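Help needed: design a sequence for this.
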């Protein structure tokens, strides 16, 4: 759906409005999580298998409030004239792009036009490779669906959220929205349903995220790295990522901590060769490795964002303290599975 679609009338008749909103929309507050990629960044766009985990302690919150008195609008009303207010993170008004995302969410859910406000509160670092846009797309869809009593299965939620995320990243693989929608570790191949990964109860999985404080455009980084995963050598690199994803998936299922650590370290070598690292990120990885963590790698598109470290579960508390001392308590986040 192109940007011009929002200059057209909403595709519902008055009768459909009455049918689809037989019950008045309700005020609701919904949440979505963040995510971190263990292996498969960038390569997943070219068909590689990737493994990602949810970050439940990073949440996106959204409150949708129908306007009072409740009003629907005739189908010929242009989107630009619909009284829908959106704000994120305390800003008085959201960007035109975000308005388009909200309006497209209405279309995808087949929700007729009505007046409402949507206020979002991001409780995760945005633009840091932690699924900020995916989390936003998921929580918008959840809020609209619950407010309008429109049941949505998690598979459909992941699919529709990926449609929305195209407005942010062009051609996302669907990995981010899948792990955010399911809120479980997943193994993922573009164009296929995600595979949920059960974690062995015999092993605790503890990670740390170190925010570099620098940011880069995901779309730009995807374009920059594209050639690395194309051609004959690119196909070999995609296959190497497939092997690493298989190691991580089996490691999670079996509780094999060293196996996951090996896969993460090898994935970091691939990402370095692809050009995702900056001097700042390289320095963080070196410092983190010196602390004695089991593995450290960039997570997400790179060029900025976060380093993901797999901690030794027997020394996790002390390793977290050393990371906070080396960086800043405000840039180090603990993640447990």
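Sure. Designed sequence:
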């Amino acid at each position: 759906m192109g940007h011009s679609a929002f200059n057209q009338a909403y595709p519902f008749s008055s009768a459909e409005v009455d049918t689809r909103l037989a019950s008045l929309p309700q005020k609701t507050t919904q949440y979505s999580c963040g995510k971190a990629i263990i292996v498969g960044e960038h390569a997943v766009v070219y068909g590689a298998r990737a493994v990602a985990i949810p970050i439940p302690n990073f949440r996106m919150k959204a409150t949708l409030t129908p306007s009072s008195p409740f009003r629907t609008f005739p189908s010929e009303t242009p989107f630009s004239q619909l009284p829908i207010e959106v704000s994120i993170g305390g800003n008085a008004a959201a960007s035109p792009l975000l308005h388009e995302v909200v309006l497209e969410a209405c279309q995808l859910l087949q929700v007729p036009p009505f007046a409402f406000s949507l206020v979002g509160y991001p409780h995760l670092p945005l633009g840091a490779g932690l699924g900020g846009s995916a989390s936003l797309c998921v929580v918008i869809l959840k809020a609209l669906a619950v407010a309008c009593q429109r049941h949505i299965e998690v598979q459909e939620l992941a699919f529709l959220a990926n449609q929305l995320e195209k407005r942010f990243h062009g051609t996302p693989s669907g990995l981010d929205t899948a792990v955010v929608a399911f809120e479980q570790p997943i193994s993922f191949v573009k164009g296929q349903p995600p595979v949920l990964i059960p974690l062995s109860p015999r092993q605790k999985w503890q990670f740390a995220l170190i925010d570099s404080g620098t940011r880069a455009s995901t779309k730009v980084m995807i374009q920059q790295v594209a050639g690395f995963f194309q051609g004959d050598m690119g196909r070999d690199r995609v296959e190497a990522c497939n092997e690493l994803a298989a190691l991580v998936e089996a490691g999670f299922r079996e509780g094999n901590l060293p196996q996951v650590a090996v896969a993460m370290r090898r994935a970091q070598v691939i990402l370095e060769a692809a050009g995702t690292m900056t001097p700042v990120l390289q320095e963080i990885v070196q410092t983190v490795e010196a602390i004695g963590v089991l593995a450290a790698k960039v997570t997400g598109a790179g060029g900025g964002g976060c380093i993901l470290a797999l901690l030794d579960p027997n020394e996790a508390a002390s390793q977290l303290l050393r990371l906070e001392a080396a960086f800043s308590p405000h840039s180090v986040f603990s993640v447990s599975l």
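The chain has ten helices and ten strands.
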